[in-house]
What does this fold into?
Amino acid sequence: MKDSIFIKVLGDYPLIRVLNHFLIYREFDYSLTDIAENSGIAWSTLNLLWPKLEKNKMVVHTRDVGKAKMFKLNTSNKIVQDLIKFADSIVWDYTKTNILKEKEIAITR
It folds into this structure.
């Protein structure tokens, strides 16, 4: 799995991986098992982190599918809104400083 810019900037920690997953796929809901797998962390680690995400209302329960509870990023939460802006800013800054510069260099050659 290739690390995102978000992970490269903030570090490769389980909570950052979970937030990264939710930021990339913010429109969709996932079970805890799917979140752990897609984030590349152990289910037991997610189980330790999850109460903090729920307590801070960063995630919201959307529905039940069989026995699985589905969750998604709570985009109405002010902290989450600021996190989205921050993550988008990181991506934009990286794009401007790296990718666009590479294209400028290629054009001037």
Summary: Residues 34 and 43 are 9 Å apart (CA to CA). The longest strand covers residues 59-65. The chain has five helices and three strands. The helical segments are 5-10, 14-24, 32-39, 43-55, 78-108.
